[in-house]
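Q: Convert this sequence to C-alpha cells.
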Amino acid sequence: QIIIHSGRASRDAVFDLEQGCFPEYGLAKEVFEVYSDAYFEHGFCSEFCPCKTSSDIFTKHSISSREESYYKSRIYSVSGFTNIRQCDAWDTLFYEYKHLVPSTNLANFMADAENYSDCSGFCVKERYFYFSDVRKGYPQKRCEVGFPEYVEAVYKKVFWVCYLS
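A:
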C-alpha cells in the first residue's frame, strides 16, 4: 500500500508569501521587516561591512548612471564579506532594531531563496544579494515574487512523503 501525504504547512507558507507588499502576518511579514531595515541599504558594502567583490560586477549590467554612481561609491575589499550575516558589525548595527534581527533559520531560508530565485528585497528589488552571496552580482527580481517560487519548488521536492508498507 502506498500513501502519499503532502505537508499543509508548505501550502500555507506559499499562500502567506503571496500576500503582496506590506504583508500583515506570518513569514511574509518577517521577511518584509528584515529587508525593510535601513541598515541593509547603508550598512552593507560600507566601511562597517565592506563587500568581498568589486563594483564592476554590478556596473556591467545595463543600469542608470545614478545606480552606477551608487555602486562605485560603496566600499569593496578582497578581505570583505560575501553576505550581511558575516559582518563584524551585524549585532552592533542592528542594536536599535534587535527585534528585526532574523533568526538563523529565517536567515538561512532567505539565503536559500535568494540563491534559488535570483532575488533580493521584498517589495522593492534590492541592489545586492544580502543573505546569499554578493558576488552573484545584480539581483534579477524582488523576493515577493521569488520566495513563493522557492517554497513551491522545495514543497514539490521535500514535502511529499511516501509511506510503503
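Residues 143-158 form the longest helix (16 residues).
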